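User: Hi! I have a protein structure encoded as tokens and I'd like to know what sequence might fold into it. I'm fairly new to this, so please keep things simple.
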């Protein structure tokens, strides 16, 4: 088995997979799409909201903001551990758009992937204040925990070779998604072998 990076940038990476059975390569594809843990907002406590957007709509929008994730620093953590992000707009004096960059995180490693994602427009006299709680999760639970936008597996010009392409949401670097996916696939296969051995 071998993995070789053939194309890479900040958003996408393509690797050549050689001498790997198709079922394992496809399992890696699926894990890279929704099996690598990242941070996303699980719930939002709205303390003040006089905007036109209902609390439920606000919570939904904030939950879909991609958050940068540092898997190395979170390895010792528990998936139930939560990181709080807060936003306090104050009373708006003029019409303005509240953006993802207005969120303040208690962990400098867990922040929005972009500062320019719109949350809500405030009219003069309106205000918004809330606490959002993010935790590690996987896309198999909800799409907001997908580490990738798109993952494809295609044939190459050679036999026994496939091209795996991963496009990140921005939460993780593309190559880190693949590396974590390989680790998870290896772990799952080991667990499966143990289960089969116990049955025998």
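Assistant: Happy to help. Inverse folding works backwards from shape to sequence: for each of the 200 positions I chose a residue that suits the local structure. Here it is:
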């Amino acid at each position: 088995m071998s993995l070789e990076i053939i194309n890479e940038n900040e958003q996408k990476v393509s690797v050549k997979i050689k001498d790997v059975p198709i079922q394992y390569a496809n399992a890696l594809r699926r894990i890279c799409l929704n099996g690598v843990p990242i941070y996303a907002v699980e719930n939002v406590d709205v303390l003040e909201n006089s905007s036109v957007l209902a609390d439920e709509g606000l919570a939904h929008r904030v939950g879909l903001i991609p958050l940068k994730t540092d898997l190395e620093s979170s390895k010792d953590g528990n998936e139930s551990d939560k990181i709080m992000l807060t936003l306090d707009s104050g009373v708006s004096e003029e019409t303005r758009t509240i953006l993802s960059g207005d969120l303040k995180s208690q962990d400098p490693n867990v922040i929005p992937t972009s500062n320019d994602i719109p949350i809500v427009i405030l009219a003069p006299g309106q205000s918004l204040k809330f606490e959002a709680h993010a935790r590690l999760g996987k896309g198999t639970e909800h799409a907001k925990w997908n580490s990738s936008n798109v993952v494809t597996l295609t044939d190459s010009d050679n036999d026994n070779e496939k091209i795996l392409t991963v496009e990140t949401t921005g939460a993780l670097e593309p190559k880190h998604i693949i590396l974590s996916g390989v680790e998870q696939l290896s772990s799952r296969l080991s667990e499966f072998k143990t289960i089969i051995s116990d049955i025998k």
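A useful reference point when you look it over: The chain is about 25% helix and 35% strand. Feel free to ask if any position seems puzzling.
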